Amino acid sequence: MSASAVRGRLQWSVAVPILAVAVLVVSWLQHSHWTILAVVAAVLIGAVLSAVHHAEVVAHKVGEPFGSLILAVAVTVIEVGLIVMLMISGGDNTSTYARDTVFAAVMITLNGIVGLSLLIGSLKHRLVSFNAAGTGSAVATVIALAGLTLVVPRFTTSAHGPQYSPTQLGFAAVASLALYVAFLFTQTIRHRDFFLPVTSDEHGRMTGIVDLDEDGHADPPSGREAGLSLGLLLVSLISVVGLAKVLSPTIESTVKSLGFPYAVVGVVIAILVLAPESIAAVRNARRDRVQTSLNLAYGSAMASIGLTIPTIAVAMIWLSGPLELGLEPTQIVLLVITVFVTGLTVVQGRAYALQGFVHLVLLASFLFLSMQP
């Protein structure tokens, strides 16, 4: 790559986050005109692309699985802030906002990101391979988190409606955080090799771990470059969520005018917030690094639950009104189907295009039934 091309990439990746912050400040004060909203939408897309770029720079510096972990946690922390801000704003539908957003994030990651990664990766490489042991443990943790926080509240009797009592919510928050921390220890310290990209034979069977130092890519960035990218990554993510918050009233009014349920708002916000991870996962799949794509998908699902529920549980000390976490029957059925299909997908440690397509059909079903329950 020429020096001018490098400078061009550096200039846009630095300029876009700064522009996004400027637009966020201006639009936060005045965003009623359609031209301002159009600019916000355009800059939001740029901020998403910038976040992906800087996340990949940081990931190249720290290596896997830390790179995908940084992006997953950073996006989820900002997502939690967005949920809390919207709950503080009040309204008739805020009691289910956390549930709808978290469930949408789970379905988008388990079916959307995974489905796209498997489909695109297998169309280019015929078969894609990953470590079934590491991926299986990630799926098991996601299932436990989703069941404990989104399914069980539908069937408890200590509180009225699909919600936990304060004591039950406290237990669920501690259990969720404990599960997430235990998985992080496993992924980054105890069994890190289980989450590294793998090599495979012509039949898609895993033969070893990719030598990340001999992959033909450029040398890792310097500590200064990685530090700059980390800072710009956080700025980009804050801008993504802030601009999504600016657009949320327009999204809410559009959803209402179309006659869709309020849960669709959570779906749209989740799609916007998860866009950086989705793009990063697809890029890795194209490079035959599906393990990294799955790390992003399942790590994001875990972080979305394991960080959001404890934070919301603490926030409920100050927030008024109920917190309904229990899923509706249709949502539970979709989650159960997704769990079974996910288990069949990861059990062999290899996949082809059909499996990715099945996950995408499940995502389409979720999106359609969100609009037409």
TrEMBL record:
Pfam families named in the record: Na_Ca_ex
Keywords tagged on the record: Membrane, Transmembrane, Transmembrane helix
Gene Ontology MF term list: potassium:proton antiporter activity; sodium:proton antiporter activity
Primary localization: membrane
Domain Sodium/calcium exchanger membrane region: 34-188, 229-371
Residue stretches spanning the membrane: 12-29, 35-54, 66-89, 101-120, 132-152, 164-185, 226-247, 259-275, 296-319, 331-347
Record's GO cellular component terms: plasma membrane
Annotated localization: Membrane
Membrane topology: Multi-pass membrane protein
InterPro entries: Alkaline_pH_Ca-Antiporter (IPR052946), NaCa_Exmemb (IPR004837)
Protein name, entry field: Ca2+:H+ antiporter
Organism encoding this protein: Nocardioides albertanoniae
